[in-house]
Please model this.
Amino acid sequence: MFASYLIGLREGLEATLVVSILVAFLVKSDRRAKLPLVWTGVAAAVAISIGFGALLSFTAARLQYEHQELFEAVASISATVFVTWMIFWMRGAARRISADLKARLGEALEVGSVAVAVMAFLSVIREGLETSLLFFASAQGAAATASPLIGISLGVLTSIVIGWGLYASAIRVNLTRFFTWTGLLLVLVAGGILKYGVHDLQEAGVLPGLTSQAFDLSGVLDPGAWYSALLAGMFNITPQPTVLEVAAWAVYVVPVLFLFLRPVTAKVAPQPAS
Model:
């Protein structure tokens, strides 16, 4: 549930920031008549994203066991790729996203009304499709299907409240710090999703080593304890992982965390020769 909440909060806030920037630009430029076009594009993006998530669940439920495991493995690996790209993109684009969106919306206004709706749609649909894919991948290991749905719904609602507060200037949030901490947690979540994908590939018979355990933490992690459920749901930490699962987790998490936490150095312009 907490992993789904984090996904909903992070992705939801990105989409909310985009919408708030577009709305603020139209309001400040005295073009309120174009606001319904923005909401039309946003509503279409949300509807397609929900439909995409429902399609993933519907497809997985109707496959045979081995094919279902393979389908879930592909979804998990794809989600890992998307979340990795997303956190690094936001790390570099967070500071210039407002100016870029305003410039694109200005161009869309010159083209026509339909272009404004398309602009809003394209700005939100990427976040929506990523959210659906990440939610589907993270929910595969959940014992109850209701908990991830509640978690992601609460995360999206929280992001909407924060976005509205930022738009109304009622609250101040250090977005750079926010995206850094949530990005750090999402790297660990993505590592767990990748680990689950590798396990699915082993279950489907694509990868070997299903019975080769790396270690056994059954005596340490009580299956009925709350912390065991939290670790399993958040980071997919299981008592008896396979060697290949642990290797895949380490190969992904260690270099990605290193690159993500590495400070960004600004390029210094060369001094002219005297």
Remarks:
- The chain has one domain: 2-261.
- The radius of gyration is 21 Å.
- Residues 150 and 164 are 21 Å apart (CA to CA).
